[in-house]
Amino acid sequence: MLIYEMKLKGLDDQYGRLDAAIRTGRFIRNSIIRAWIDGEIRGRNDAYKYCKKLSDNKEQFPWVNKLNSMARQAHAERAWFAISRFYDNCKKQIKGKKGFPQFKKYQVRASVEYKTSGWKLSECRKYITFTDKFKAGIFRLWGSRDLHYYQISQINRVRVVRRHDGYYAQFLINHTREEKKDLSNKQSGLDVGLTHFYTDNHGFKVDNPRFLRRDMKRIKKLQRRLSRCEKGSLNRKKARNRLGRAHLSVSRRRNDWACKLARRVIQSNDLVAIENLRVRNMIKNHKLAKSISDAAWSKFREWLEYFGRVYGVPVVAVEPAYTSINCSSCGAKVAKSLSSRTHQCGCGLVLDRDENAAINILQAALKKLSTTVGQTESNDSGEFDLCCGQETASSKSSRRKSKPNQ
Length: 406
Ligand SMILES: [Zn+2]
Fold this sequence. Notes:
This protein folds into two domains: 172 residues, no CATH class; 228 residues, no CATH class. The chain contains ten helices and 14 strands. The strands form three sheets. A seven-stranded antiparallel beta sheet has the order 2-6-7-1-5-4-3. Strands 10-9-8-11-12 form a five-stranded mixed beta sheet. It has a two-stranded antiparallel ribbon with strand order 13-14.
């Protein structure tokens, strides 16, 4: 799945009509969640039926019918997705909040989703027309992407996204991107940190992008300015818009940076091992919050996994237990405080703290792969017992011996 995004250029009146469509999508979603809470909806089909009931009720809710029918369905699906995710979390008995479906409030950042109807691209693919009863009309598509390369039938969905700096159309294109890559004979484990964005098992370090820090300063200033404005005033609206744009530019830059870095990492490795960090848990620790969100780690990870699929490079996430404490050479536990930057073990290994962790991460990933890939063979074949004597025992010990030489 590819997503191309282009800005929509139109008139104020047209944007107002898009707003109405976005509002309607939200109305459908919230109504279905309301009905679910009231016990009227028990399954996905009920959600569809309820959606139809809303659009048929032209006297009470005349606006629902104006939205394209498949778009109405898409928003019923969104509501059901939120409900089923809650059910799943309950079933899995995860601790803490289960994500009870919330009603969506008005937000500037919002979207309405069309499927394969309700819109039409022009012959030259530079204009899009929204054809449902909101009559938003023709918009010019503004962006660097070229839609000519794909068939119209490959466009599964068109999403209209409202942001602080305007309206965008996202095209969800059914296309699997695959690219060739030469073997690099290199495998990397990455350890994420706060002093450096990551350190790999070869000792290579990537610094945190400093520009994000600078942007944070600007955002703080705009935030203060917003809080000084009187509520409901025009100045407050302007200040909120400025703040929203600043946030946008930070997230765009962060995304761009993470994307380029991830592509480089994938292109120069045959396997990448990372820690399965739960960023949400870490953000609870308030002091770290900014640095971590700055660190853009989760975006980077998303891109790693994406490019991993594109180039056929496995990206293995391992549980982060003890990766910085264990010695990568002998396996002993060497406790250290956050501030000590070197790993110094009784076995004689002295290594940068993060580099040691990166080696542990890569080793854990290889172990994980070897158990998941090799399992069926060892269980199915009786012959495997033949080589379980001396051979494996000696190879194990020789592997252990060879490590300190690395
Ligand atoms: Zn050691």
